[in-house]
Structures are given as structure tokens and as C-alpha cells.
Amino acid sequence: MDEILKKLLLEEDELQFTKFNEEIAWKIGSELVKQAITKSLPITIDITRGDHQIFHASQPGTSADNDEWVKRKTRLTYRFGHSSYYIGQLLKSKGQNLEDAYLISENHYAPHGGCFPIIVSGTGMVGTITVSGLAQKEDHQLVVQAIREYLSHEK
User: Fold this and answer.
1) Among residues 11, 35, 78, 94, which one has the fewest Cβ atoms lying within 10 Å of its Cβ?
2) Bridge partners, residue 57, by sequence
3) Chain-centroid distance, C-alpha 77
């Protein structure tokens, strides 16, 4: 389990932006939509900067439930400053649930993969990129892959 946690923290260290704005959100969000269409993935995609939702799209097969999952995962990532998958795996490694460990309700916070912090080097976390609709590990991997792909073209 420690290896998974280390890998997830390394992703957060590696996948940092020099800046983040609406244009970048559009590029990453559009790439995620393209993948969803190409692979027929029933996902909702959401990108925020602070309290501002700057990209949102839902594909066939999703529902308002996915929007609620997005909100709960995003809330968790803002609260802890780590990916929702990392927090879920951390809790799992300790044999705890969110309510026992932090006295917060899973009705409002979801420690399930799919939300990744947008970290600007030298600034810190400024937003989130979230996917909901697949198994949590797959949601997480889609976001990580999209960020990695974007950053590889920006260097």
C-alpha cells in the first residue's frame, strides 16, 4: 500500500503547471471529451479554478448523480490538497473511513478516485480536474493521463 501512496504523491509533484487559465482548462477538458467520445466512456468532466467552474461536460450514460460525485470529490481535494484517489487509498491503508478519521461525512466528501489538484509551481493548488463515471482508478488515470499529455506539449 505504501508504494501506491508514494506513486500518487509523486504524480502530484510531477504534474504541476507553470500557469493555469481558461484556455488550458478548455484544452484539457476538450481532450477528455474527445477521449470519452472515441472510447464511448460515460463520464462527466469538470474543471475548476477556485470557486469558479471553468469547464464542464457530460457524456451519454451519465446523470445528475455524476455531478454530485464531482462535487463531493472536488470538495475533498480542496479540503486536503491531494487527489481524491490518494485520500481514499490513505484511508484504506489505515483501515479507516472518512467520518472516523476526520469527522466529516461521505455525504459531502468522496474519497474516491477522479479528482486531481491543479498545482501551479511556486503557487500551490489553484483548482481541480475531475472525472466521474468509471471505476475510481480509471477516473483517476484519465485525469492524470490528460494532464501529463498537456504538460508534455508545453515543455
Assistant:
1) 94
2) 45
3) 8
Count up the domains in the chain and report the number.
Answer: 1
Which residue has cell 490538497? 81
The pTM for the full model equals 0.96
Distance CA 68, CA 27 (A): 24
Mean pLDDT of 113-127: 97
User: Nearest 5°: CA angle at 2, between 133 and 15?
Assistant: 55
Provide long-range contacts, Cβ within 8 A and 24+ apart, for 103-111: 104/79, 106/72, 107/72, 108/72, 108/75, 109/72, 109/75, 109/76, 109/79, 110/69, 110/72, 110/73, 110/75, 110/76, 110/84, 111/76, 111/84, 111/87
CB under 8 Å to 85, separation ≥6 — which residues?
A: 8, 112, 113, 114, 115, 136, 137, 139, 140
Q: 36: domain CATH number? A: 3.30.450.150
What confidence score (pLDDT) does residue 155 get?
60
Q: Which domain holds residue 113?
A: 2-154
